[in-house]
Amino acid sequence: MGAGKNTVRRAKRLSKLVCLFAALLLAGCAANLSYLKNSSLPERAGIPDLVPFEQKEHLCGPSALATLLRWAGEPEITPDFLCPLLYTPGKEGTFLFDIAREIRLRGYLAYSLTGGLREVLEEIASGKPVLVLENRGLSFYTVYHYSVAGGYDLGRGEILLYEGKREARLNSLSTFSRTFERSGEVAVLALPPGELPVSAPPTALLEALGALESAGKKPEARRGYENFTKRFPGSWLGHFALGNSLAGSGDFAGAKGEFEIALGLSPDRPEILNNLALIASGEGRCAEAERLAGEAVEKARGQGMDGAPYEETAREVLRCGK
Known about the structure:
By secondary structure, the chain is α+β, with helices and mostly antiparallel strands.
């Protein structure tokens, strides 16, 4: 009997400890989000018609991506279809690079957000759902989980997550900010061709478009480059990238126009001169081709760059008209 009473007392003490531990965890999840209320964000935003999928064990990645791709323009996509493409046996989950790869292979722009919670909410406010990764565990026991953020309410302190349930669920925005931060604030967009993130830095956006182009989705990337140059008309690299894309499609007149804009913005770039020389040579403007190629070689040497590619072009244009 004594042993039984001791067991009961220990159980009660343990119960108090567990409750205290839980309370500490919840307190640790409280975050100061006043900076969001003082920002230019709308008070609330939501994206209609997102499709929730009930996830199977360890398959939050395929479920979240299916929700994202349904929105982007894949009406028949399901987690079951995506599972063999994304799930990594032995790891009991899905790697982010596999998600990004699958987005690109389907012709959508995969863009990783780097601006934290505020940037996630900005994208939602502009009508774009965001695939997010949370660490719902502890520092010594990680529990990673993919969801899709599809709405928020700053006044109520809530965020709407499509997290592998039959229906989307409202979660505490404060708690989410902590679990999201513990994951490294991983967040990804899947955008239809030509659509761009709200506030992406030019260099990161061009890298994402380049990755889409490298995945073989050249027409889709070209639409992105076109809109990039409209948003950043002063970016020589944007016009250069669009020029390369147009040249690759056989539109040399369009490519020439973009290269000339790029050259006007950055006259010392040998890459631009080089490509203009190749177009001039192809069109039979031999003297102009030789002049441009020579300038490219001089610019490259003057800037300490590897001159070999430019010297090769200079030799090639000597055969112009022959």
